[in-house]
Design brief:
Blueprint lengths: L3 E7 L2 H11 L4 E8 L16 H11 L1 E6 L2 H5 L2 H7 L4 E2 L7 H4 L1 H10 L7 E4 L2 H7 L7 E5 L8 E4 L2 H14 L6 E5 L4 E10 L3 E3 L4 E2 L2 E3 L3 E4 L4 E4 L8 H18 L5 E11 L2 E8 L6 H5 L7 H9 L14 E9 L13 E2 L5 E4 L2 E4 L2 E4 L3 E9 L2 H12 L2 E2 L3 E2 L16
Amino acid sequence: MNKVKVLVIGGGGREHALAHAFARSARCEKVFVSPGNAGIALEYPCVMLPDREKIYEFCLDEGIGMVFIGPEQPIAEGLSDYLVAKGVRVLAPSMAAARLESSKAFAKEIMQSCAAPCAKFRMIKSSEEAGEILPTLALPIVLKADGLAAGKGVIIAYDHDEAQEACNELLAAQCGAEGVLAEEYLEGWEASLFVFSDGDGFCTTVFAQDHKQLLDNDKGPNTGGMGAFCPVAEAEPYRRKVEEKIVAPVLTEMKKRGNPYFGILYVGLMMTARGAHVIEFNCRFGDPEAQAVLPMLKTDFVELCEAMFEGKVGQINLDWESGSCVAVIMAAEGYPGTYVKSLPISISELEGRVYYSGVTKGENGLISSGGRILAVVNGGEDLKSAREKAYADLGRISIPQSVYRKDIGTRINRISRVE
């Protein structure tokens, strides 16, 4: 059996979950994470590789068999292209294919070309244009930065003055060359599906559900995600149409344009009375959905990645643990705005796992360094059991001035029309 060394690029909870998924594989010799964090370093060697040249040198020196890029920024900046051109095997799309995430306008163009269901939209490039277009749109209006915004570039405006102000704010932030996307508001509930694509074939994961708002009952500002669970039973009736009407046509369109999509494609969905509609694409695993989904995967993760490199991923039937998994984020007070740092972290023995994101070394152990500090993850025979176990573990963790949602996994998702 040929074993491989793996390098995971990134330093958050998603990358911790990825490292753990690789480490569970019988085909994995060793996992490195760059830059990682002090929490990840308790389990896996973390290396500081400040630029793409250093990453390549490390791959040569250590005999790295595959690189998995976690965050969107290095993918959008072409790290995959650089490494692939030098003969390194990389699990991530090219910079051109990653425009499905880095440009909302491009993603909409692709969806229009292949008739994938999505919200109606207009692109706005200036404040003056906003003044002309926004008053003609039905309320509420969803406003999105065209480019990358770390999961926080979405504002829902309930009157036209609010829409103008939000549009000006997003334009000033300059997240994307095409300006701001003004989109119709879709009524329904959200779910996420991850696609493993080798450019020709694909296979999909269980559905997951993220909880973006900071507070219980979906109140408060949008964050990078305060928790997730999987599977989402109510989403399963939509699977066939999502794969046939969205995933397959989009991947075919990308290949037709000369930019085949190789890597993980996140499909953010709104389940509406008109069936499933695309909210957005991401060119990587979601965070914190990855922390809930990856522990449920029974299929050997290295073998799954090898199938992608061999162009055989379409022949894979993914195998999953029974039951459910819940991930709850502990964040620093003030997040997603200005938050407190250097909070001491005390953890008693847990039944489940912790995936670290915003942590560093303190004098007496780990302390917080980011807005989202860690994810508490646990599984159970059903969603109720998984929730109980995850929240019991939260009671064994002490972080002063921290916040977390107490309702992860309690939304009511109603099955409506499945088109």
